[in-house]
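Appendix B, example 12.
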Amino acid sequence: MAKHSHMNARYQRPERRQMSWQPMSLNQLIPSDHTARLVWAYVESLDLSQFYQRIQAVEGKPGRDPIDPRILLALWLFATINGVGSARRLERLCQENFAYLWICGGVTVNHHTLSDFRVENVEFLDQLLTQSVATMLHQGLIELNRVAQDGMRVRASAGSSSFRRKASLENFWKKPKHTWPN
């Protein structure tokens, strides 16, 4: 049996310098049943009027449009589910990871904006993220591998089994809810 020379072998090589044009929408980047879509649908179902009332940018007036609070909220919720608690790491994911790019929908976010949003709304976010994660865990929509603890002390981090039992979840929902300061 003759030995094949490496020089004669044919194989596909990576070509990273070649320019290519592959038209794709953000919707094509992730599957239709991806958790990021579930998180977005959940955030869209929430009453976030308190966030929108604080926006000072209005039609016909100068000033830069702020990032839609739903984007920031969905990013933090999705990050929490994935064990990400650092605003800098979340910013990087928003540049590199298809699911985070999909949530951003073409809007650029930086770690300062992400961190400010978290700090300005820490109590509301803690409660909302806890309820969201608990609900999605209970419904079997997500699996919690690890929960971020970097400033977002989400009660679900006590353990995913904490909210898998119906009685535990019902007991959680009976606790007093956060109300917005006027």
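DSSP finds eight helices and no strands in the chain. Confidence is low (pLDDT under 50) at residues 146-166, 176-182.
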